[in-house]
């Protein structure tokens, strides 16, 4: 780690001194040339002799066909000043300079904090990604506090070549997910002994024993098929499930891309139905509760938290319905474009969206508050349909925002503040559990459970997770992705994969 930081410091110094500093000077010179030319919106300035010079910088585009005098004649000295402006154009970086920028913390910080987005990007997804990440952090924090006191969708789908290159398709996604898991996990376990102390602070990281025995399940992304207590970094079940669904989606996405719309749609609907039915049947047979926070109830015969996690929560076949809904939505928008909807349809869509989301979240209020406990059959129905109803609500919100019917929701979700946090969402997800562990095990007394305490604790945990994630993103994730991208290009795997996903998450 010390060697990596030393290399990054040297690359940062080289970048600032030999790349950025000359660039700043060229930018300053271009601004002066624009000002002398008298562009609208720029400060007017005159040469020392008092005469005005009209210049056309190379950055503004050559041969625009317009003269600022209103005629076709060149002003005196214009050709020479045009030539001078060409000298301040940005030079092409050498291979060494590109490598230096890959490890430069200055450049990586600039890229992270840059809120400019591609005009074709789905801007509302930045806000959704941040909100969902914060939701996960809050839920995990609540679960761990209760334990102490008493728990890809695609940007676009297209064909780049006529030949399917399955190896590139799989390896690209695998390299996007696993290396960062390994690095974050190694830092977490390696630094744990020196990060804290206290009466309940363990000597070794809570997951150390599981990682020593079952680390290969996590690195191979198949840890959803072992007991949740044996998973190395248990929160990475989601990454494994997402990767497995990523491998599954060609079953219906390839027919859709090829133009076999009925076949692809039928395959997708069959998979959704299979997920709903299998979840309900498993919940019924295993007598599972309708929520993960419900514990052993001997009189009702309902099982506890670990059973819900093992049989439903971490299983990709029980979680694939919203994933498929998202893929179908992305393909529909790209293929058919944005349809025109009447105000009545839009209002009805938002009403159903709110009802489905609120019903999914607050439908289990009675069990959470122990006012009444659901029967095994009711719990099975809820477990079977909750992911579908919640996923359909999110799908409508995205659909409305991308078709111009989002209104204030789209304005909020597209807020530029979300862009840097959206880029860090994967890092935040990986580090938030170690941060919660540190918070919980540093306690030297009883934890007060209240709504206000939860809000304060959540804000602190989320803020610290963001800070740690920003460091990891700049120091590790961004250089690693650049290296992977270069290596895959050299191997011909970056441009030739069939299904492309934007890697800016």
UniProtKB/TrEMBL annotation:
It holds the Pfam family Acyl_transf_3. Keywords: Membrane, Transmembrane, Transmembrane helix. Residues 159-473 form the Acyltransferase domain. The chain crosses the membrane at residues 134-154, 174-195, 235-257, 264-283, 314-333, 345-368, 388-413, 425-442, 454-476. Coiled coil: none annotated. Residues 31-86 are annotated as: Disordered. One of its GO terms (molecular function) is acyltransferase activity, transferring groups other than amino-acyl groups. The keyword ATP-binding does not apply. This is Nose resistant to fluoxetine protein 6-like. It comes from Elysia marginata. The lineage of its organism: Eukaryota, Metazoa, Spiralia, Lophotrochozoa, Mollusca.
């Amino acid at each position: 780690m010390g060697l990596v930081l030393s290399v990054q410091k040297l690359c940062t110094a080289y970048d600032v001194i030999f790349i950025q500093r000359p660039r700043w000077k060229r930018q300053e010179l271009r601004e002066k040339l624009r000002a002398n030319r008298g562009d609208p919106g720029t400060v007017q300035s005159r040469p020392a002799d008092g005469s005005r010079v009209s210049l056309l910088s190379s950055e503004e585009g050559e041969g625009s066909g317009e003269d600022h005098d209103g005629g076709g004649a060149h002003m005196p000295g214009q050709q020479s000043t045009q030539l001078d402006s060409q000298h301040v154009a940005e030079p092409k970086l050498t291979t060494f300079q590109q490598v230096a920028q890959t490890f430069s913390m200055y450049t990586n910080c600039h890229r992270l904090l840059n809120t400019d987005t591609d005009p074709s990007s789905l801007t509302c997804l930045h806000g959704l990604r941040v909100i969902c990440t914060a939701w996960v952090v809050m839920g995990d924090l609540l679960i761990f506090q209760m334990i102490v006191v008493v728990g890809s969708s695609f940007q676009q789908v297209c064909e780049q070549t006529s030949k399917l290159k399955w190896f590139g398709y799989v390896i690209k996604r695998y390299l996007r997910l696993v290396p960062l898991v390994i690095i974050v996990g190694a830092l977490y376990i390696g630094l744990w002994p020196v990060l804290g102390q206290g009466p309940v602070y363990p000597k070794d990281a809570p997951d150390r024993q599981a990682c020593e025995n079952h680390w290969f399940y996590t690195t191979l992304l198949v840890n959803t098929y072992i007991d949740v207590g044996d998973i190395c970094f248990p929160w990475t079940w989601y990454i494994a499930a997402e990767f497995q669904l990523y491998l599954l989606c060609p079953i219906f996405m390839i027919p859709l891309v090829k133009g076999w719309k009925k076949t692809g749609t039928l395959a997708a609907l069959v998979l959704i139905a299979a997920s709903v039915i299998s979840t309900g049947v498993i919940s019924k047979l295993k007598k599972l509760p309708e929520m993960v926070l419900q514990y052993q109830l001997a009189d009702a015969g309902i099982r506890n938290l670990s059973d819900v996690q093992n049989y439903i929560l971490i299983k990709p076949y029980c979680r694939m319905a919203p994933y498929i809904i998202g893929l179908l939505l992305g393909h529909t928008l790209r293929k058919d474009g944005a349809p025109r909807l009447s105000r009545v349809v839009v209002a009805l869509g938002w009403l159903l969206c709110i009802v489905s989301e609120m019903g999914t979240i607050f439908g289990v209020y009675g069990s959470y508050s122990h006012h009444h406990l659901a029967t095994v059959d009711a719990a099975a129905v809820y477990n079977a349909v909750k992911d579908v109803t919640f996923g359909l609500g999110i799908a409508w919100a995205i659909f409305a925002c991308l078709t111009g019917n989002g209104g204030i929701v789209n304005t909020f979700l597209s807020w530029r503040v979300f862009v840097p946090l959206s880029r860090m969402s994967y890092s935040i997800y990986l580090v938030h559990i170690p941060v919660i562990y540190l918070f919980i095990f540093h306690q030297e007394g009883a934890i007060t459970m209240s709504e206000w305490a939860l809000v304060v604790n959540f804000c602190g945990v989320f803020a610290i997770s963001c800070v740690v994630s920003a460091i990891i993103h700049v120091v590790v994730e961004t250089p690693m992705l650049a290296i992977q991208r270069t290596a895959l290009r050299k191997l011909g795997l970056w441009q030739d994969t069939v299904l492309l996903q934007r890697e800016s998450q």
